[in-house]
Amino acid sequence: xxxxxxxxxxxxxxxxxxxxxxxxxxxxxxxxxxxxxxxxxxxxxxxxxxxxxxxxxxxxxxxxxxxxx
Length: 69
Prior knowledge:
By secondary structure, the chain is mainly alpha-helical. The chain contains three helices and two strands; from the N terminus they run βαβαα. Strands 1-2 form a two-stranded antiparallel sheet. It is flat.
């Protein structure tokens, strides 16, 4: 899956063709390689101890639907 930015309304239609498209999976892999090469540690995830009830409900719904966050 590739993602690119949406042109603003002031951009002519041909300007969109000149914009690079970034493959997010490839981009993530390149970042991971660079972090490993630099010896940067993986940061711990947020413990979530201070999440609001609405945020907890949202994350539970995502998990129940088979997603990960």
